[in-house]
């Protein structure tokens, strides 16, 4: 099986399914993750969202955006009139990275090197899905899609991810909203929903 896997990995996958089989069979770059968390949603979705990396819940369930940040995103998508089931959701990095703190597993952000390692997969994944618009949620997604480290405050809004056949859009990561103090969160959340609405109109 090791040889079969190596042969599979050496070949250009010819479908999202084949690509996902390669990702699923790969070891995490940083050991510890339960499983690879693959993208979810229909091929041909008009709009795709790229997050950072799976969190604790995503790692255990094997699905993207099912933890607290995912719940916030789901609510915001609903408010923006975007049907989650018709959108494609994925992450720049496919494995959870964490620091053990007693029984808790605290999320650690991927390094630029880790993002670069996973980029090959993300590029192919999005090529198979072929959305009209890709929304980068936060700085890690921007780094994965552009190769550049840009502050979200500067990049926010419609963007061109050069050389890509889809339009780009940059907004904040839902975890950022969860970390804001209560008094700042409501306004920031409203701005996030506005961004999603604008993104949806660009993908239409
Ligand atoms: N945060 C992400 O960036 N992706 C997930 O899947 C969950 C939380």
From TrEMBL:
<feature type="domain" description="Uracil-DNA glycosylase-like">
    <location>
        <begin position="38"/>
        <end position="197"/>
    </location>
</feature>
<protein>
    <recommendedName>
        <fullName>Type-4 uracil-DNA glycosylase</fullName>
    </recommendedName>
</protein>
<comment type="similarity">
    <text>Belongs to the uracil-DNA glycosylase (UDG) superfamily. Type 4 (UDGa) family.</text>
</comment>
